[in-house]
Q: What sequence folds into this?
């Protein structure tokens, strides 16, 4: 089978969750004997691109030119299947409906972001900014059923047409879990049910773990922001923990436009034994770390959590997204904490931080749970989907 995989910037190593899963999906497809070409619309002019990485002409802004380019590419390479990893991105929202029916390729659209959590968790997303502006008094109002219901209704009115458009030009739409499917059906209506498939993200493999080499390190991994990943929360948590865990350290992995502000917050909290490591390969840190802190206001899957668990890192996660309770069995392979209950979060960490036997048992259970998401297992579902779409 000849496959065209669409992404935004081109697939680069350590460039976020969607890039990571795209790279692994391409690897699995090629191992299965498929020919895969990658297409992006924003060339960052960096090394590390796949040798079969292409880009839309002129940055993807000229729709007519894009249509001719992709139509020619599909015919020249005899493309059987288009896998769109970013169907909500404007260049592809404009492009795909135009080529539908003009090429023989079937289209699978993959939704990697929640459909409704952005608005249902709006209070968590905007907490930092509102408090910063002296508007923290608005937060309780935003949590009331009336306001939450009104915001959800307005959000659906704004985006329903967009999601229905994606369903209309796709042969199948892939979401990551039952919770995402429920959100999508709530958005578009039950008629879209037959087109929606559930396939979780996956990790490459479960490494052999030497627990004796683990150090007293906590990792946090993500884009440095105050909206989605909530770096302000992990800094606040460390402010509570650093005096109680004097021989531990915190490593913050990732970069973002809010880095300087995050550093100012850390300075104001007088934090010690922590560091901003920048955009790095997290696996090098997972090998040594004992805990992963996940402070996101929402996630679609949290590939970071699954990857860290595969290295025996115990996750402590705020229960703010549907996949959290599927990845983490509370008290067995990690901890789930009620959204932004920082005191409860601290207590869960302290419960096993100095109990080596309990921590090791939980780390071993984390490794075992992560094996459910290895590529060799999950790709079987992709394989069946490919066969059903391209008959």
A:
């Amino acid at each position: 089978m000849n496959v065209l995989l669409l992404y935004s910037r081109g697939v680069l190593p350590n460039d976020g969750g969607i890039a990571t899963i795209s790279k692994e999906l391409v690897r699995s497809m090629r191992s299965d004997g498929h020919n895969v070409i990658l297409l992006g619309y924003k060339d960052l002019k960096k090394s590390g691109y796949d040798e079969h990485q292409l880009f839309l002409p002129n940055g993807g802004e000229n729709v007519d030119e894009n249509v001719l380019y992709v139509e020619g590419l599909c015919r020249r390479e005899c493309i059987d299947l288009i896998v769109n990893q970013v169907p909500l991105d404007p260049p592809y929202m404009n492009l795909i409906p135009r080529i539908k029916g003009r090429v023989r390729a079937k289209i699978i659209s993959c939704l990697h972001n929640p459909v409704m959590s952005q608005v249902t968790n709006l209070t968590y997303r905007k907490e930092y900014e509102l408090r910063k502006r002296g508007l923290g008094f608005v937060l309780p109002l935003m949590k009331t059923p009336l306001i939450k219901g009104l915001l959800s209704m307005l959000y659906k009115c704004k985006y329903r047409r967009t999601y229905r458009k994606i369903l209309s030009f796709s042969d199948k739409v892939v979401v990551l879990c039952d919770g995402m499917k429920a959100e999508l059906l709530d958005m578009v209506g039950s008629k879209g049910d037959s087109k929606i498939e559930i396939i979780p993200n996956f990790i490459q493999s479960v490494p052999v773990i030497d627990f004796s080499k683990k150090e007293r390190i906590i990792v946090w991994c993500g884009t440095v922001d105050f909206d989605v990943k909530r770096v302000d929360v992990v800094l606040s948590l460390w402010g509570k923990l650093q005096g109680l865990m004097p021989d531990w350290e915190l490593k913050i992995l990732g970069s973002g436009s809010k880095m300087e502000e995050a550093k100012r917050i850390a300075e104001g909290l007088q934090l010690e034994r922590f560091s901003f490591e920048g955009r790095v390969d997290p696996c090098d840190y997972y090998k040594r770390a004992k805990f992963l802190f996940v402070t996101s206001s929402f996630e679609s899957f949290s590939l970071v959590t699954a990857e860290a668990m595969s290295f025996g890192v115990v996750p402590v996660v705020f229960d703010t997204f549907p996949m959290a309770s599927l990845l983490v069995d509370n008290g067995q392979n990690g901890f789930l904490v009620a959204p932004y209950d920082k005191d409860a979060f601290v207590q869960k960490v302290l419960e096993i931080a100095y109990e080596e036997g309990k921590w090791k048992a939980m780390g071993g259970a984390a490794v075992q749970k992560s094996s459910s998401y290895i590529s060799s297992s999950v790709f079987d579902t992709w394989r069946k989907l490919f066969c059903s779409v391209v008959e």
